[in-house]
Amino acid sequence: MNPIFLQALSLHDIYDNNDECIHAAADIAAELGVAGIDIEDRLLATYEPDYLQELAHQIEGKGVQFGYCGLIVPFNEPVSSIPDEINRVKTLIDALPHLGIDSVRVPGNGVVDGQTLEFTFDAVRTKFQTICDYAADASITVFLHNHNHGSTPSTGKQVLRMLDEIDSPDISYVLDTGQFQGSPGAGGFGSTENAAQPQLYESIEMCAPRAAMARTKFYFAAPGDERWLDYPRIVRILKNAEFQGPISIVYEPRSDRPSTQALPDAVHYLTELFDDN
User: Fold this and answer.
1) How far apart are CA 38 and CA 61, in angstroms?
2) Domains of the chain
3) How far from chain centre, in Å, is Cα 274?
4) What is the tens place of the pLDDT at every residue in 136-165?
């Protein structure tokens, strides 16, 4: 079974967006016996080395490890926001060694304010090139993250083109199962009766051979019933692509099930699917 990590931000339904989510996620990961947790920059109280080192010590003491750290991106802002984003990710990259983290997850940007898709795509590619050039000196891997919300890259073709046009050995790719075009949850406003459109699975199948990590999105996490996403089909795609990377489980609730129940159910469900398919 691929190593499983829990996204700490999943617990924001119970805790504020702070490091309480990190500690709670680590406790659940330890109880479930999975590899560890992934975190987001917004959950860290500060980038002060003493705080980060103590946090890393506490998480390690629970018997789990950190995976990646993600960067929040303002999807509703034009590409003029990118310079600030680059400065923030550089500061984050400088801080990550204190946590023992060697990878950062970065999404693209929104196609907004009359920007064309091609103009935005070019700006995003330049953004990633700049981030990768900086990350190389710190030995940090940069994970491109497909993300919709009107952003690019948000299709399989866009992801593959972006990966091919970034000239860096430090670029990698995390496949988000719920953030391609065609997912009811990609914009955050899908109806509970909807299901993913075929183009979602086409993009997953296209990108799975290039993925170093899978970010598996759950919206309901009722045992055996994820409604919007066909996980038996997704797992078959990943296995057919001989995907061997870690799996990060992310819960974005569209029901009244708390994350403390949903995350364990998602772990058991995915584990059974990978064992059976």
Assistant:
1) 16
2) 1-69 (no CATH), 71-244+264-277 (3.20.20.150)
3) 20
4) 999 999 999 999 878 999 999 999 999 999
